[in-house]
Amino acid sequence: MRPSDEPGTGRAATAAEAPPVFRLRDVTKRFGGVTAVEGVGFDLRPGEVHALVGENGAGKSTLMKMVHGLYAPDEGTLEVGGEATEFSSPRDAEAAGIAMIPQELDLFPELSVTENLFVGRHRPRTRWGTLDRAAMRGKARERLGSLGVDLDVTASVKGLSAANQQIVAIARALVGEARAVVMDEPTASLTEREVRQLFRIISDLTSGGVGVVYISHRLEEVFTISDRITVLRDGHHITTAPAADLDAEELVRLMVGRPLNELFTRSPHSPGEVALEVRGLGRAGEFEEVDLVVRRSEIVGLSGLVGAGRSEVAQAIFGIRSPESGEIRIDGEVVRIKSPQAAMEKGIFYVPEERRSQGLILPFSIKNNITLSILDRIARFGFVPRTERQTADRFAKGLSIRGGSVSDPVSRLSGGNQQKVVLAKSLAREPSILLLDEPTRGIDVGAKSEIYRLIDDLAKEGKAILLISSELEEVLSMSDRVVVMREGRITGEFGRNEADQERVMTAATGGRDRPAPAGRGEEAPEDE
Amino acid sequence: MSEVQTPTPAQSGANGTVLSRWLVRPEAPALVFLAVLLVAFSLSSDEFLSGSNLESILVSVAVLGTIALAVNQVILCGEIDISTGSMMGLCAVAAGAVATSTGGLILPLLTGVAVGALAGAANGLLVTLGRIPSIIVTLGMLYALRGVILLVTGGTWITGIPDGTRVLGTGSVLGIEYPVFVLLILFVVMEMVSRHSTWGRNVFAVGGNRRASRLAGLPIDRVRFLSFVLVGVFVGIASIIYLGRAGSVQTNTGTGLELQVVAAVVIGGTSISGGRGSTLAALTGAVLIGVILNGLILVGVPGIWQDAVLGALILLAVTTDVLRRRLLGDKS
Amino acid sequence: MSAATAALRRLKLSREVVLLGVLIVLMVVMSLLSPLFLTVGNLLNTSRFFVEVGLMALGMTLIIITGGIDLSVGSNVALVSVAVGFSYAAGLPLPLAILFGLVVGLAAGLFNGLFITLLDLHPLVVTLGTFALFQGLAYGLSKAEAVSDFPPWFAYFGQAYFLNVVPGQLFIFILAVVVVWLILSRTRFGRYVYAIGNNEEAAHFSGVPVRRVKLALYSGIGLLVGMAAVIYTSRVYTARGDSGLGLELDVISAVVLGGASIYGGSGTIGGTVLGVLIIATLRNGLVLAGVPSTWQVFVLGVLLLVAVFLNEFFRRREE
């Protein structure tokens, strides 16, 4: 477990009877045919940390986007300061004192740190009416200083590390006068020390009467920092309770809806020959000196924080990014893979993390998606044969894809069924090595359980599987071996019996006191 | 909330970083290229480096440069405007017609600016409210406005522009010819607007990351709309300079200008995908084009090769931009 | 689900039905404006003009479906025309000169494609540059002069009649329509084109050879431009540096009018053919009705804007 020197930061400040900063009443939000959130209530009191937990796809982000004016609820109301309110844009929300730090950072890479903090906000001016750049830089430094970092505020954001970009995003949200701050997975790419800095900031905020909604997967953080916890599952409100009344096991049961051991399928399989071997793989700024071995009938879990370089390594193996050093061996033979087509020829298939943007052609039918990667095999003289449909049908049935016939567009399927289509596409290619990048992200529990069974079956059949996942339970339950990456390097490797939460997390975050990434500490006359 | 005071490190100002900072500025390659060209042409032709030739180069790019300063903003927003050639023609026709009946500078100028602003507003509305890509809008407008010119003039020339109107093209102030003077004034204005106005800063944000701009609550449509209107206004001003210099308007006035303008902006170093660039880049690009066209004539290349040179320059500019980014290791 | 699918199919059908309706109404109006319009001779004669635009529009449809665009086709016509005329004037036998012209067209397209794929540049910028470059080369190489002393048989490509009424180039066009339609709707290549247009990144991740497909498309349109340019040069019997000036507008308008989304991902050959016919009818009808050619440019520019606007409007309504 994470050591904590600042227990229950906001707890003391909670005034249980104070009127809420905002309250959602019975809100429902649908996207096309899919109901993302149904009849959920949620409120945030001044000075409290209210954790919002649930699995991926449970509806947490959707719920908070309604608070932040990005979505309007289809049913139900939003009350701010006791009055029913409708936000038509995030700007309205921010004017009402509700700030959000989104999961995917929305920064301006070409602009300086200072400019990023002031985009869309009031900028200080000199008496000549020109921008007071010195004051802007001073404010930016001050704001970042209060987060415990010291960055070159004139440097452009694209040159910063992932953690520092996160800090800029947090600083950006706090530039306004917020009464409520929503933080969506703020610690996903932070080191231990940076997490503690963040908790200190949160405690400063709450003692000033600001309410904080804290969305996180990391349960130990949730228990460390929150006063109340709300659990969502499949778009429904499960419970809201004081953090003191819950424990980790109970919370997991509420989130998953059943005990963990029923979710995962894991049958014994005996790893065979080495199928994929990577030696000294490197690519400037992304990863270096990566050694990795995956055998037949073996599931190797690849764990680490967001931004640790795991997807980049997998994509390098798949020919999407060309490695600058090191070598890749397939069945013992050195290969040079320059494109996904070449990787597929060698029996490798990568199932990307970004399902909608990288995995699927959304307007295409299920059939056209499933057969997209095998067209070069099944086409006759360049023409697509009629047997295409039977092929697609076979895989759609094999993976029990539900929600439409194979001629329907995949855009209408639920997240879980969409993910099955991506998997079907990869299996149609009959790969011997599968690189699965967050294969269960954002899908419901039922589909998850099916996908775990599928992964287990594939390993039994003799496929070599690399399972990239940010969910510790998933990695620990499914893998024969766990490899951990941090900041582009392999920092730990554990056999099935040695791997546990603490060891993996330590390797992923670099243990206790790591120095915070230093700012560049340089100043140049211009900040363009 | 409490402010934790952290000591800022000693601000190291003037060391090696100044040069490296300067080199990554968007217009740096164009400026270097310009310097090389100036040296090359002055070595191969004695007339080139004479004061009068240099001033005549600046005069010749005044129209181009003025419009490029505004189109620069459109491109920074992540949009494009290729209607400026016909728009310039139309503004010149309207201003010319007013000039021949009333004379003077103010009325024709206001007419040109108003017509330009209207045309720019039409572009802006179609792009923002109509949600049509700007390349299509302005391509359609390029042809539609040329049609309007032909309709209005009936295919005849407008001649006999009175001297009072032509002052912006022929006169001089403080020993500087007016076209150069106007161009420099507008450059300073745009530089200030770009650096210090909220709109000027928003332009960079909208072009750099539109999604984030939406989340930050920026008025994306208004920012883009204004940049299109600005193009119209600057085209209107440029049309008066044109009237002054040419003294007449033909139905094909401004043909092909739109390409030179876009070329000037991208050659100068503003990224065609938006979000990165500078006002100086637009000016540098325009001067660069002027120097090249002038230099080619001086070294004896026939004028019919002008388009080919322009096209090659655009390709060269975008290629250097890509290669520079790759060399700097910008993998995004 | 299946009801929605059926509705969607009906909608797709109706887009082409609407275009057909527009075409018929246009023809009726034109025949009222000019008694000459609705004669077999005139209708067939009209095809002389649209074959050139039509050939290029076929290639442009595929390019626009991938989310790209080619602004350089008009200039490329000039380049090919000059290549044919001036290589012939320089002593090359005419068949070889024509072959040379086709090679130049293909090479120009390949040039675009290489720039776009190797440097990851937006096709808009590249073809804006080559628009000027090709035009300038055509002017420069021809020294702004014209060649028109071709042997009589050269007229065959652009002026011949089959059975005294059907213009010869119509057959070339029909053949090209069938071939491109088959490619787009029946082949692996066609599937790749749609995949790239709908989600280029996912297509790349799925093993679609994105660069090769794009390279083939831009080279392919270069070849079609070459064919169109030869027909054009034969029809006007002159090779000059300003041949094909502004044709890119006709071509892009026809494709967009035919329902291809300028954002990529959708479009059909059937729609494009209808778009080409509508534009040809409009141009021919306006000429017959005695409307000055100045108007035609205006009408075409406005037509392009209206077509894109309606397209995107209806597409948003569907979603």
Automatic annotation (TrEMBL), chain B:
It is found in: Cell membrane. The chain crosses the membrane at residues 28-45, 57-76, 88-107, 113-130, 142-161, 167-189, 223-243, 255-273, 280-298. The keyword Signal does not apply. It is a multi-pass membrane protein. One of its GO terms (molecular function) is transmembrane transporter activity. Keywords: Cell inner membrane, Cell membrane, Membrane, Transmembrane, Transmembrane helix, Transport. The keyword Cell inner membrane applies. One of its GO terms (cellular component) is plasma membrane. The complex is composed of two ATP-binding proteins (LsrA), two transmembrane proteins (LsrC and LsrD) and a solute-binding protein (LsrB). Part of the ABC transporter complex LsrABCD involved in autoinducer 2 (AI-2) import. Probably responsible for the translocation of the substrate across the membrane. This is Autoinducer 2 import system permease protein LsrC. It comes from uncultured Rubrobacteraceae bacterium. The lineage of its organism: Bacteria, Bacillati, Actinomycetota, Rubrobacteria, Rubrobacterales.
